UniProtKB/TrEMBL annotation:
<keyword id="KW-1133">Transmembrane helix</keyword>
<keyword id="KW-0472">Membrane</keyword>
<dbReference type="GO" id="GO:0005886">
    <property type="term" value="C:plasma membrane"/>
</dbReference>
<feature type="transmembrane region" description="Helical">
    <location>
        <begin position="311"/>
        <end position="328"/>
    </location>
</feature>
<feature type="region of interest" description="Disordered">
    <location>
        <begin position="17"/>
        <end position="114"/>
    </location>
</feature>
<feature type="transmembrane region" description="Helical">
    <location>
        <begin position="196"/>
        <end position="217"/>
    </location>
</feature>
<feature type="transmembrane region" description="Helical">
    <location>
        <begin position="466"/>
        <end position="491"/>
    </location>
</feature>
<dbReference type="GO" id="GO:0022857">
    <property type="term" value="F:transmembrane transporter activity"/>
</dbReference>
<comment type="function">
    <text>Probably involved in transport through the plasma membrane.</text>
</comment>
<feature type="transmembrane region" description="Helical">
    <location>
        <begin position="123"/>
        <end position="148"/>
    </location>
</feature>
<feature type="transmembrane region" description="Helical">
    <location>
        <begin position="262"/>
        <end position="291"/>
    </location>
</feature>
<dbReference type="InterPro" id="IPR007603">
    <property type="entry name" value="Choline_transptr-like"/>
</dbReference>
<feature type="transmembrane region" description="Helical">
    <location>
        <begin position="503"/>
        <end position="527"/>
    </location>
</feature>
<protein>
    <recommendedName>
        <fullName>Protein PNS1</fullName>
    </recommendedName>
</protein>
<feature type="compositionally biased region" description="Low complexity">
    <location>
        <begin position="33"/>
        <end position="83"/>
    </location>
</feature>
<feature type="transmembrane region" description="Helical">
    <location>
        <begin position="402"/>
        <end position="420"/>
    </location>
</feature>
<feature type="transmembrane region" description="Helical">
    <location>
        <begin position="168"/>
        <end position="189"/>
    </location>
</feature>
């Protein structure tokens, strides 16, 4: 009996035939046993099975003269995501990666035979970031040069009114504390997953309540109210999130297993941390020098400087330095995220395929992040940096305002901006995963990522994932512990510049920033793995089923809506 072939409009999907005419019914993933001679004119009688092709008979359904050239999938092609409207049985070894993913990988390749031209996205953000760095360098040079003059000629008088070099030891001490805590945090996440999540939640809740009580005792009511609100929310979240810990522990175990296989990702995080430490030290020197040079009380006593002793000028410089620090820190953190996301995507899409994972996926992903995707990195980081500066200004205002009502309003505004900032960072991580995989612009990646996630039904899986919350809480935890060490340093050693305790809030604030940024950079590897897992799950569920079947089966079992979404 000769086989008959059918022809459908693009894309063409191969449907394994049933064993007998009596088994004709809509094909789903539950009946993969259909084999041999399904399309037989004697059995088929020129009628389409009910609901098999959505009650529509495709054009040129029978073609008895020739077999369509595109009857089977071409290994070099794959239908776009939007056209996957039919359920089908995937090939045994899974589908090859999307063409755009291969092109994105070629953009960071040294292969001279590749005809793929690198497309640089969001170049305007690169230009703006470069100008910001140049401005920071200029402020740093002017501040340090004038500070040297002040130290030589007015050492005693200046040290009595403002910061001096002994502050560097405090902040470097805080940087060391942040490094130790962040490294230990990453090691514990790799060794223990379920216990790690529980301990992080518990310590975060306890720490928030301790700070709430402390600030009430010392009568910092604005901060006490702020920490009390956060502590109450996290206490309630614990009862809501507790049933989700087992699922999140599976995700964390999956991520750490891939990290253990490609250890260069961890090395990338530490290189990024080292770069961030060097930049932080440079920024600390610049900040101290700028404080000495432009702080009005010190500036008026330092007659040798050429700067103007104006409060407005000093305020602008401080805001600029804070903005630059946040922006550069975000760029470093996002660069690590895009690099590691590219490695995770390479594993999910290429593992088990004839092409295989490239020999140096981390290096290739880093090249793409530093070239084609760097503009998108700068763009998204700029938005986050602006919100972070606004939040810190509101927090400072809440501390300085004597009116309780005004302090409360400023604290509430800081909380609102903080949540907006957290939402933006949460969304950016998934958008940057698309940037890492396909080399899209930031806006296109943000739009396409969320649309794809909603269409696939993965948003329920993402909402129940606690990895991002654990990393964020860990960053706050490390930041608060580092700030506590900075505060204890000022209490125990009594620096000469802080005899009256006027600079204690500033030292604590800077110590918190250092500790928070330390773990944010290292923990971004874990967060990147989770974000990439979900985007790849939405983009190509079969690839995840091939590489990590335990996680895929757990997702399908726990979230039936997702299983329906991939068949839609």
């Amino acid at each position: 009996m000769s086989q008959q072939y059918y022809h459908m409009p693009e894309p063409i999907h191969y449907y394994p035939p049933p064993t007998s005419p009596s088994s004709i019914h809509p094909y789903t993933h539950t009946n993969p046993e259909k084999t041999s001679n399904y399309y037989n004119n004697n059995n088929y009688n020129n009628e389409t099975p009910s609901n098999y092709y959505n009650n529509e008979r495709p054009l040129n359904y029978y073609n008895n003269n020739e077999r369509p050239s595109n009857y089977y999938y071409n290994n070099n092609e794959r239908p776009p995501y939007e056209s996957q409207n039919t359920s089908y049985m995937p090939p045994q070894n899974g589908y090859p990666p999307p063409p755009s993913f291969e092109q994105a990988m070629n953009s960071g390749s040294d292969d001279s035979k590749s005809n793929t031209r690198t497309k640089y996205q969001d170049l305007w953000a690169v230009v703006l970031f470069t100008l910001d760095l140049l401005a920071f360098i200029a402020v740093s040079v002017i501040s340090l040069r004038n500070y040297v003059i002040i130290q030589r000629q007015n050492r005693t008088s200046v040290e009595n009114v403002t910061l001096n070099w002994s502050t560097i030891w405090i902040l470097m001490f805080c940087a060391g504390i942040g490094l130790v805590l962040s490294t230990g945090y990453l090691i514990l996440a790799h060794k223990f997953s379920k216990q790690f999540i529980k301990v992080t939640f518990f310590l975060s809740i306890v720490m928030y309540w301790c700070f709430t009580v402390y600030f009430f005792i010392v009568k910092y009511f604005s901060l006490a109210i702020l920490f009390a609100i956060v502590a109450i929310f996290y206490t309630l979240y614990w009862f809501w999130w507790k049933p989700l810990i087992p699922f999140s522990s599976i995700i964390l175990r999956t991520i750490t297993s891939i990290m253990n296989r490609y250890k260069a990702m961890i090395l990338t995080a530490f290189v990024g941390l080292f770069v961030h430490i060097l930049y932080t030290i440079w920024w600390i020197f610049t900040f101290i020098a700028a404080y000495q040079v432009w702080y009005p009380a010190a500036c008026k006593q330092a007659k040798t400087t050429s700067t103007n002793c104006q409060t407005g000028q000093f305020t602008v410089i401080v805001i600029f330095l804070l903005f630059t620090y946040y922006w550069v820190s975000q760029v470093i953190q996002t660069f690590i995220h895009v690099t590691t996301s590219g490695v995770f995507a390479s594993y999910y899409f290429l593992e088990g395929t004839p092409q295989g994972v490239p020999p140096s996926p981390t290096l290739g992903s880093a090249k793409r992040a530093a070239t084609a995707s760097f503009g998108s990195i700068c763009f998204g980081s700029l938005l986050v940096a602006i919100l972070q500066v606004i939040r810190q200004l509101l927090r400072s205002l809440a501390q300085d305002v004597d009116n309780p009502l005004g302090a409360f309003c400023a604290a509430c505004a800081a909380v609102i901006v903080g949540y907006i900032d957290a939402l933006l960072e949460y969304f950016n991580f998934y958008a940057y995963t698309q940037v890492a995989i396909y080399g899209k612009s930031f806006c296109d990646a943000a739009k396409d990522t969320w649309t794809m996630i909603q269409d696939r039904g993965v948003e329920a899986v993402i909402n129940d994932n606690l990895i991002g919350s654990v990393v964020t809480m860990g960053s706050f935890l490390v930041g608060m512990v580092t700030a506590l060490f900075g505060y204890l340093y000022t209490i125990i050693f009594h620096p000469s510049f802080n005899d009256g305790g006027g600079f204690t809030p500033l030292i604590v604030f800077l110590a918190f920033i250092i500790g928070f940024q330390m773990l944010s950079i290292i923990g971004s590897v874990i967060f990147s793995g989770a974000a990439t897992t979900f985007v790849c799950l939405a983009e190509d569920p079969d690839a995840l089923a091939r590489t990590k079947p335990d996680l895929y089966n757990e997702v399908v079992r726990t979230y039936p809506g997702f299983a329906q979404g991939i068949r839609a």
